[in-house]
Amino acid sequence: MSLRQHAIQLIATYLGYFLASTLCLHFFPGSAGLWAATILAITAALVAWHFNRQLVIPTAVEAPGVSPAQVQVGWGLGGIAIVLVAELIGTKLSSWLFLQPASRQPLAALMAAITTTPAYALAAVVALPVLEELVFRRVVFGNLAGVTGTFGAAVISGLLFGFATDPAHWLTATLVGIVYSYLYHATGSVNAPLIAHIGTIALTLGYAFTH
């Protein structure tokens, strides 16, 4: 499989999930829609992972070499702290530049969805991070790094990630996306940002539900 075919397959999978889940949540509000969105997210993540495993050609980020598994895990776990700092900086910058007050609405909405349909936690914590890391990091950042350079690719992929995942707080989400790109670049493996992504969401939700 070529890098172009790989990119088309993963982006199509992501867009298909995004459209289908949006329609399900619109026409079937409540538990039914959340169950449908959960099934769609898990299915899309599995399909994307299958396509990803078929790619044997390294991206521009992976070409210099891939770190050992223990290094990937170390960067991933350490990356959780970096992501949390990036979120704090993004919130402060949004307040200063755009007079945007800090908001817990997205987290509250996610908690409400999980309370209504606990299975949705699997989609939010695991399936969506898998899908997003494969698309925004391995496809977008991984392919653009050889064209625009690492910094340009990180900014572009970060902006796309920010507007796709949290347009209301795009600056914070963009900074988080740039951190994930850095973790990918530092290890040559998408596993590092994936660990950080899953860990950050799990930690945030765990803290929110226990406090």
**By helix and strand content, what is the structural category?**
mainly alpha
Largest sheet: none
What would the average pLDDT be, to the nearest integer? Answer: 95
**What is the number of independent domains?**
1
Overall helicity: over 70%
What does this structure look like?
The chain is mainly alpha-helical and 211 residues long. It has one domain (3-210). Helix content is 82%, strand content 0%. The protein is built from 8 helices and no strands. α1 runs antiparallel to α5 (120-148). It is globular, with a radius of gyration of 17 Å. It starts with a helix and ends with a helix. The model has no long low-confidence stretch (mean pLDDT 95).
Short description:
The chain has 211 residues and is mostly helical. It contains eight helices and no strands.
List the topology elements:
Layout: H1 3-27, H2 31-53, H3 69-98, H4 105-116, H5 120-148, H6 150-165, H7 170-187, H8 191-210
Helix pairs in contact: 1-2, 1-5, 2-5, 3-7, 3-8, 5-6, 5-7, 5-8, 6-7, 7-8
Keyword list:
Metal-dependent membrane protease; 211 residues; mainly alpha; transmembrane; 8 helices
